[in-house]
């Protein structure tokens, strides 16, 4: 069946049901498209499980992050609800007060993440507070009528969910037939609450998790996109009825709470009793995600510096969307397992060791081809070299050992990185970056101790005052104690020793109570420039002057940290077999996530090919008239046709459009057009 | 044929000037120095072009903040002025060599002569003209050519290739011009280069205040009343418009250049098919972009990968495609649902519900040209995006329009969950442009004509008469730009006079039938009167009437 037709634009193809059964699985396509057939099934399984793991982990993190916010919201609802309960009894209050309790939920600009937040919010509310929740989106509510329809539809549906199905018919009819008005809503609410009240105790159990006469919560997901009129009308209408049923509004706000006042005139906003809630900023959110997912040994797959940079840049410069960041990470996982046959070893250490034993010969060859492994081989003695290159079993042994090394490296890397971050994040001007991700990138990129920034941060660290230094050391001890690394006992000992030394120093200091030491002077200067200047002076004087005990100790501490960094924060691509666990084809990621169609078009049109084509047209035209003289109707037609096609194509690509001002004229749209 | 394919040059020049000036203002010192140092026109122009390119380059680099090679800095700096000039010259030379007229060089490079008004060869009259022209400030190349054409200048008569087109002497001439316009389409950047007027002006008013100039020029450039474009239309050509069929046949005959290379390129893309399938299954959707028709590639994908699955092909370029028809084919043909929906949103909800309930349902959706006229609307995109966000609907689509990504905001983009693939195929857009929506073919209206005749043939003679009346009336008023249509009352009167109807009701019944066949359109005027219109262009209508006359 052809998809070309003059009368149709959509074509459905349905294979016969018999054939349909043999539809292929995802694994099949993984195998088919994969660059190397080795272990593809195993790889696919690993990939899938890893993806699932990441997904559940991120979801959990998000839940934890939102917990605080949701708790606040629930307590707000409780407060407003109890107010309503009171009012119910006091007739005077009921008639006077028209204010609708409203929660303004400032969520930040990462609109795409809001969906998830709202979903979990409504889940939380559904479980703890009320079954009556309506989620409204601006795109569904162009007018007040649609809004009411949507609102009633959602409320009555959720009512059905809670109650038994016997009422369903009735509800169904009412939704489609009854005029959607506030009165209907109130009647419905009264009947719904009455029903739950009068139900048998057995049934009541199910609804006992909700409060008595539960509030109706209406959530406006994207408050900014609603038309002003719709919002105003809704607020005004419902404020008329606020005494009759407990209504609570929640506004999802992406920009700033001021928007409420610019959207609603004072007369309307005065009907709202607004309380502000602030969700965690998306940057903090991202930091947590990176911290919990990328900076742990929990997930075997790691991202190289470039890849991480691309993902972070997309986040910072394009969308601020944590979901997209996670999506990018998921894509990394797929790409890594799909393109790298050795990724089969990218799993937990025990499993990986087992898998090494069952590697095929081809896979062993793949290992030998890894640049990092070659470097490793070259550093060995010659007999060992031969063994590694020719005998599979000795290779497997070596690989197992190397994988273990790699694992140990990671186990040590992350805690030390955090320790270093404790130091660098409190230095003035943050030479190595404020966020741990920046530090991580710097460490991955090259030997961090060779960089200028590291040098200057060490300089600054040598000028820290005692109390800061002590708190930092304590933090470091905490980090190291809580981490699973095996080699840290010694380090912890050492750090503790420093701490006690500081303690002693203090005691001694109190006894002596000498003149003001130069570092005290130092503390007064907050300016970096002055700091550096005094530092230089100090350097001069230091040669002549004897250092105080504190200074000596401080130097010792900093040097010790430096030695730790040099030992543990070696960039990953210096490690053998890093290719197995690091995904580093940033270009792929960039191409697929952050594509530039305009550039593709430009490049294609820049391509000499199209110029040649154009020139060939010139040539044909040049030859045309001379060859066939004046009566060459045929040639002309072809060129005419080609010209028409060129114009049509330009129109399709959006370079020109027919100008409305004149017949048969076109206007240019790109490259400096209108 | 194309001496009259004039681009509207107004806005473009305005922007151009601004750009150049901004640059100059940015470093006035340098600019002054340059002005003093260089008196020669062309050298200065080159310099300015260079700085312009430099600015572009800077922009490009800025856009590369994400720090990778795909940034595109080098892409946008492609126009080295020297090369593009050369190319323009070369092209015109090539096009002219076989020409019958052997006129000496200077007149052959119209851009150059136009740009240097001091050129000694100019007669005084042309100089005067040049000056008056300046006030109108319009200066793209084709415009300049036309301008000179229009002037009754003795000198211009020697420039045979342009004056010739007035009298429309020879076929060959037409062909040449056609080509040069093709060229001017294709190397637009080159043209913007050649266009720049400020240099010539600057040398004249060298010491004048720059700011003043800028302001003046801005308003000159934006005074729409002064803009002159050619009044030539395609109608004036002797060559008849081609209809779609002949066009297609002709193009079939012309061989595709570089077929082998294109084939190789396509094979590269075909190796990605199973990867696409994998990624579709993993919850991503795929969008293809890049120059060249992706129809065949997607078709190949369909035939090789999707034979055993339920799939839906949507030709976005189909002129009357709507989201509703897409949704309809899903509900009716894929889900076998009989019944109607109140709105597309309801329908979408239904589809989403069905797909969520039944996890065994899977659907592949292929959309050629997701960015087509009919689908690019906000609502359509929203619906398609929501559709594509279903885990068991796999969407693979192609886009061509240069601004296509602007259709999607963050929310839609995250619903679509795109993975982008560049598939530059260089193949001609045969299918996509094949419907009669092209600029140059559209007017032939053979499709509309045939549908008209078909429908009309099935009607009663009276009904045909009614339609004829309306058509004739519309043709009589074709010169009236604000013709609102024929009001119902007048029409009724006329029909009665012609003994076509006997009551208001019969006419209304008849009109309803016309309306159902989309033969007429009604709209209400400001005074509440109903006006009737035939939504077909005049030439088609007159063709139709002629044909009708023959039949009778």
TrEMBL record, chain A:
GO terms for molecular function: DNA binding. The keyword DNA-binding applies. It comes from the Eukaryota. Residues 628-671 form the Origin recognition complex subunit 3 winged helix C-terminal domain. Residues 356-586 form the Origin recognition complex subunit 3 insertion domain. Residues 1-345 form the Origin recognition complex subunit 3 N-terminal domain. Keywords: DNA replication, DNA-binding, Nucleus, Phosphoprotein. Transmembrane segments: none annotated. Signal peptide: none annotated. Component of the origin recognition complex (ORC) that binds origins of replication. DNA-binding is ATP-dependent. The specific DNA sequences that define origins of replication have not been identified yet. ORC is required to assemble the pre-replication complex necessary to initiate DNA replication. Binds histone H3 and H4 trimethylation marks H3K9me3, H3K27me3 and H4K20me3. Component of ORC, a complex composed of at least 6 subunits: ORC1, ORC2, ORC3, ORC4, ORC5 and ORC6. ORC is regulated in a cell-cycle dependent manner. It is sequentially assembled at the exit from anaphase of mitosis and disassembled as cells enter S phase. Belongs to the ORC3 family. This is Origin recognition complex subunit 3. The gene is ORC3.
From TrEMBL, chain B:
It is found in: Nucleus. It holds the Pfam family RecA-like_ORC2. One of its GO terms (cellular component) is nuclear origin of replication recognition complex. Residues 87-205 are annotated as: Disordered. Residues 118-130 have a biased composition (Low complexity). Keywords: DNA replication, Nucleus. The keyword Nucleus applies. One of its GO terms (molecular function) is DNA replication origin binding. Residues 479-539 form the Origin recognition complex subunit 2 winged-helix domain. Residues 261-422 form the Origin recognition complex subunit 2 RecA-like domain. Residues 181-202 have a biased composition (Polar residues). The keyword Nucleus applies. Its main location: nucleus. GO terms for biological process: DNA replication. Component of the origin recognition complex (ORC) that binds origins of replication. DNA-binding is ATP-dependent. ORC is required to assemble the pre-replication complex necessary to initiate DNA replication. Component of the origin recognition complex (ORC). Belongs to the ORC2 family. PANTHER family: ORIGIN RECOGNITION COMPLEX SUBUNIT 2 (PTHR14052). This is Origin recognition complex subunit 2. It comes from Gallus gallus (Chicken). The gene is ORC2.
